[in-house]
Amino acid sequence: MTSLPHNKVAHVSAKHRQSKIWAAMVPLLWLASCRAAEPPAGPTRGANVGQPAVASLPNSAQCLADGGGFLRARISGSFKAELDWNDGMACTGATRPNGGVRMRFSHAFASESNAQAQLVLLFGIPGLREGLAGKNLPVNLTIIREGTGKFYGTRGDDKCMIEQLDQTAIAGIPQRNRSYRVTARGFCSQPARAITGEGAVLVSRFDFTGRIDFSEEDSGPETPVAARQ
After folding, report:
1. Whole-angstrom Cα distance, residue 213 to residue 218?
2. What is the pLDDT of residue 178?
3. CA atoms of 54 and 88, how far apart (whole Å)
4. φ/ψ of residue 141, rounded to 5
5. Residue 52 lies in a domain
6. Count of the separate structural domains present in the chain
7. Does some domain include residue 65?
8. Tens digit of each residue's pLDDT (9 = 90 or more) over 42-92
9. Which domain holds residue 123?
10. CA 121, 127, 130, 131: dihedral to nearest 10 degrees?
11. Are strands 150-153 and 179-188 parallel, antiparallel or unpaired?
12. Selection from 165, 142, 148, 108 nearest residue 218 by Cα
């Protein structure tokens, strides 16, 4: 048997190794080409093409981050409503310059004249102190039908009362913000009367969970400016 020269043996071995390397790389190259040919994933549902997708908060989180805010109330008089607000409701709460707090709840409430109108309930609680539960707390109630020019107020805190109120510090918020989840229930024994014109509404019962930021101050007037125009 004729043997090959040493330099030819080395050349044949090198070619053999290259063949094995290419044989191993072919499947990888084929897989990579297939992936490159795949169309890019479509945008997240609801995202704008050409803009980064942003995860939007549920409407209920406009009050409390966990979506637990709500307001329920029975209203009769110049207009009637059984309110059961959660999704789509916004709420805020802050201290008043003369002491106490004011809590605001709002939600879409279309009228015959304005499909974009909102209903706002303002609870002024003069005797509430930060972090403390309370019973039989007097309440000043203002009801605003935004977009219709109709405003109603008890004009004092002797017509409505909170039977029970509890406060819980909101975890995860820096202590300096002094934010609390506030849950309360109560009733009105007399109606809130129209601030301009005629009419009155009675909120015979209400209960809610909202928030108060004791580091914030609500310096607005007791009676909305628009109501006096």
Report:
1. 10
2. 87
3. 19
4. -110, 130
5. no
6. 1
7. yes
8. 333 333 333 333 333 445 568 999 999 999 999 999 999 999 999 999 999
9. 59-228
10. -90
11. unpaired
12. 142
d(CA 104, CA 111): 20
> What pairs with residue 183 in β-bridges?
166, 209
Written as one letter, the residue type at 127 is G
Evaluate whether 91 touches 63 at the Cβ level (below 8 Å).
Answer: yes
**Nearest Cα to Cα of residue 182 among 194, 170, 192:** 170
Residue at 204 is within a domain: yes
Query: Which residue is it, tokens 């201290």?
Result: 95
The pair of structure tokens assigned to 190 is 């007399």
Residue recorded with tokens 């053999």: 16
pLDDT digits over 19-40, tens only?
454 444 444 434 444 444 444 4
135 domain residue, yes or no: yes
Q: For residue 18, is pLDDT > 80?
A: no
pTM of the predicted protein model:
0.71
